[in-house]
Amino acid sequence: MEDNLQDFAGIILFVTTPTGDRLLMNLRDDIPGIAWPGKWTPIGGTREGNETPFETAHREVLEEAGITVRDMRMIPGPRHHTHERSIPLHAVFDGTDADLVLGEGQDVRLVPLTDLHQLDTPPYMDHYLNLLGGLRQL
To answer: In this predicted model, what pLDDT tens digit does every residue of 77-104 receive, in sequence order?
Structure first.
C-alpha cells in the first residue's frame, strides 16, 4: 500500500489458521456507543500513541483474544468505506480455540470460513474476505 503508515486511526486484523480455513472472530459487546455492537467481527481497534499499525494489531489481538500471531502483513486492495482511516491486516495463529482467552467482548473463537455466513457480521466482511482470498496460500 502506498498509504502513509503514520496517518491511520486504527486497524482491522484478520487472523487465520495456517491452512487459512478458519478465521478468528470476536462477538462484540452489545452496548451503545461502540462499533458494531452485538456483531461478530475480526480483531480491531484504535491506535494508541505513536504505535505503528503492526504494534496496534499485536496489542489488540493480545487484549481481545490473549494470543500472539505471526506473519503479519497488510491486505492489498481498496479499503471498505467504513475503514477509510483503518489499516486492514492479515496474520496467522498456530494455536487452537483452547489457547484463546477472552479479553474483550462476549466470545472469541476460530470460525470455519464456511460457517461465517451463519454469524451476524458487519457489511464489510465480504469485501475483505474477497481480498483475503489471495493471501490464503501461506
So the answer is: 888 888 888 999 999 999 999 999 999 9
Domains and CATH numbers, the chain: 10-126 (3.90.79.10)
What CA–CA distance (Å, rounded) separates 125 from 113?
11
- What pTM value is reported for the model? 0.91
Q: Rg for the chain (alpha carbons), in Å?
A: 14
What would the pLDDT profile of 38-81 be if each residue is shown by its tens digit? 999 999 999 999 999 999 999 999 999 999 999 999 998 888 88
Strand partners, 86: 10
* Sequence letter at residue 9: A
C-alpha distances in Å from residue 78, one per residue of 38, 107, 119: 26, 29, 24
